[in-house]
Design goal:
about 110 residues; mainly alpha; rod-shaped
Length: about 110
Amino acid sequence: MSGQNTGELLTDLLANAQGRPVDLLVMRAMIEEASEAGAVKALATLGLADERARRDMDELRELLVTWRDVKRSAWQTVARWAVRILLALLMFTMAYRLDLLNLLEP
């Protein structure tokens, strides 16, 4: 970028383009510089413009992966217990209907 910041370069491109037809190369450079300036501003607004931002994003991704694993594990545990309860109820119902509960009496 030859020592200029994005805002200065974009201002220079716009000044050079005034009053004459803009060729495709200048238009692309203007769009690229405006996009970069917008991205930098958006990251700064979110607080992700400093040197710790990459590490923070990596930690957030790890946390999200862990949360998803815990959530999946919790649902699997709930499903296992639901199946066990249903099977126990089924066995109790069968024992009741077959009058097997009387065998438990002394």
